[in-house]
Every structure is written in C-alpha cells, then in structure tokens.
Amino acid sequence: LSAVLKNILTYNKEFPFDVQPVPLRKILAPGEEEHLEFEEDDEEGGAGAGSPDSFPPRVPGTLLPRLPSEPGMTLLTINIEKIGLKDAGQCIDPYITVSVKDLNGIDLTPVQDTPVALRKEDTYVHFNVDIEIQKHIEKLTKGAAIFFEFKHYKPKKRFTSTKCFAFMEMDEIKPGAIVIELYKKPTDFKRKKLQLLTKKPLYLHLHQTLHKD
To answer: For 158, how many CA atoms within 13 A lie in the half-sphere containing its CB?
Structure first.
C-alpha cells in the first residue's frame, strides 16, 4: 500500500495502462472568458487552425420540451434559422446559448444550449433548431429579454468562447420571421453598454410561433 501511495501521482506509462492526463475541454460561464487574455486576431482568423484529430468532442444540446398549455396563456417557440458572420466558415463547433433575463440580468427560465450547428455556408452558420421558452409570455416580468449567445471552440486556448450576442425584447414577440442585430462580447445582460459587432448587414435570423389556448 505504501508503494502505491508513493507513486500514485507519478505518471508511469506501464502501470497498468497508459494513464497520461488528457487536457480537458473547458466551457466557461458567460463572461468568464473575458478575464482571460483577449486576442482579437484569434477572433478574426486562425479559429480553424489545428488538425481535425485534435478537435474535442462536440457540445451536446440541452434543449427542453414545450411546457404544458394553460387556458389564456401564451407559449413561444423560437426557431433559430441562421446567423450571419464574416468568418462563419472558421467557427469550430458553434452553438447558441439561449436565456431569458430580467432587467438586472437574472435568469427567469432555465438556460438552454442548441446542438452544434448543422452546417456553415458562405457567411452563415445554419442551425434550424426550435427553442421552447420555458415560461408563459404573460408571466415574464416587464423589461425582460431573450438572449442568444453565439459560442465557438478555440483550439489554441482549449475553451469555448462567446463570440457575439443578440437579444429580443418583449415588444418584439410576434408571429413570423425576425432578424436581430449582433453585439460585441462580453454579453451585456443589463443592456447598458451595447456595441454592434460590425457595420456589415449580418444578423441573427429567427422565426417565432405563438401557442395560445
């Protein structure tokens, strides 16, 4: 036993199989990556660097089912169609985190992650995935907003980073298609200091469906 304890933290390829530590993929909480060294060049290019063999496992989705209907209450389904980005083709394992926040940035519903994007084409990353908002519209507090954070994996730093975000306010909830502007990170849940990601006409494309009994 003493021999085991002595060598337990030692990397020995022969005992009894190769147990060399494997670097873990780190997924950071919203805003956490802002405390790390910021490399603008890494955002603009080089995101696709590295061989396919070095890519970590894909991020699974955490989508939730539609809530039960209630008389006189409205449920909202948002289809995330696509997002326009000038370097769309270089984004690795992109997905979108959807949350509903009040004016103070406090969560009003569980946070959901989409599965990794279906495909990348020209200046668009395509998702075509439905998000079921986990609260009846009538029960959301005044000033609430639905946030969409576009995230992608950075192989050089081995973590998933927020690239940009968009949000939709309550007066924008209506059936049909909508396009919303993209803002620079870090995600500003309080909507106080917003900066557009680009002057180019690139947006998040959504389609809303309202369900009312």
So the answer is: 6
What does pTM read for this prediction? 0.74
pLDDT number for residue 29? 52
User: CATH number of the domain at 78-212, please?
Assistant: 2.60.40.150
Contact by Cβ (8 Å): 145, 84: no
CA distance 137 to 173: 9
Tens of pLDDT, residue by residue over 144-200, are 999 999 999 988 888 899 999 999 999 999 999 999 999 999 999 999 999 999 888
Handedness of CA 158, 27, 112, 197 (dihedral sign): negative
Q: Is residue 84 helix, strand or coil?
A: strand
Residue 61: pLDDT band by 50, 70, 90 thresholds?
Answer: confident
Look up residue 137 and give its DSSP letter.
G
Mean pLDDT of the chain: 81
The residue to which tokens 């984004």 are assigned: 91
**Residue among 133, 109, 112, 111 nearest 210 (CA):** 133
C-alpha 152/C-alpha 90 separation (Å) is 10
Q: Give residues with Cβ within 8 angstroms of 44, minimum separation 6.
A: 87
